[in-house]
Amino acid sequence: MQSCRPLNFMVRKLITFAAFLFLTASLQAQTADEIVAQYIEARGGLAKIKSVKTECVTGTISFGADAAGPFLVERKRPLMMHMEIHINGQLLIRTYDGKSSGWTYNPFTGNPNVQPMSADEVRNIFDEADFDGPFVDYKAKGNQIEFVDKEEILGKAAYKVKLTNKSGDVSNFYFDAASHLLLKWEGDRKLADKNVPWETFFHDYREQNGLKYPFLIESDALGTNQTQKITADKIEVNIPIEDSHFGKPNPPAPPPSDAPAPPAELPKPN
User: Fold this and answer.
1) Which domains, and CATH codes, for the chain?
2) For 52, how many CA atoms within 13 A lie in the half-sphere containing its CB?
3) Do residues 58 and 234 lie in contact, with contact meaning Cβ atoms separated by under 8 Å?
4) Would you give the distance in Å from CA 9 to the centre of its chain?
């Protein structure tokens, strides 16, 4: 019987270790859920977020010193989107009907026609059209979240949460430990058919209709000179927008012949 004691001792140790791992994983998941719940509440609360049926944001976007202009983004439940960006006398348009079809008019490619979005573009437009964000009903959206660590971002203590979406794409979000609002996002974005690491910082939160929005969003592609700055002038919610506005757009009238030349390459906005 003496020979069985080391084995029993080892079994008890393994069970204790497994239980510890399970407990640690559960605590981390719960912490991530708590961080997300605090963020949703800091924005204005789940009920207020879900009460928004339409959203219209207007302002200025820049992709560097030589490419800047006004933009408009309209979104409507469920997942409809209409985006316009004016750059150097040219107009870029992207729309999605919230179901299965999207279209792009991009004069910077030299194509004068409206083009249907590819299957990959339609699949990836979900994040742009979802104005609730990836954390509201994240499980139903197929997202997984995990608390990573506590770090300092922009001189503030922040909680780092890793999000893995249903396609397996991983990104990190940093939440202000004091205000619980989002400070930073980091992940990969397509740039010239390559995955490039990007980081985005959120500033100047203001309250509109009981919800807090960042009015300044700054992004850059790490290791490149690609930057993006979005400055919102006005954010309107629950204004009437016809569903037809999210269908196939009509090409705008051609620009005057003396319009400035467009930039050689224009990255997609966030």
Assistant:
1) 33-246 (2.50.20.10)
2) 25
3) yes
4) 50
Copy the structure tokens of residue 194. 């390559």
If one counts every other C-beta atom within 10 angstroms of the C-beta of residue 134, the result is 19
Please write the tens of the pLDDT for every residue from 59-104.
Answer: 999 988 778 999 999 999 999 999 999 998 899 999 999 998 999 9
The Cα 255–Cα 270 span in angstroms is 26
CB 91 within 8 A of CB 105: yes
76, 250 Cβ separation under 8 angstroms: no
CB 265 within 8 A of CB 192: yes
Residue with token string 């791992």 = 21
Alpha carbons 220 and 229: distance in angstroms, whole number: 9
Distance of CA 108 to the CA centre of its chain: 24
**DSSP designation for 15:** H
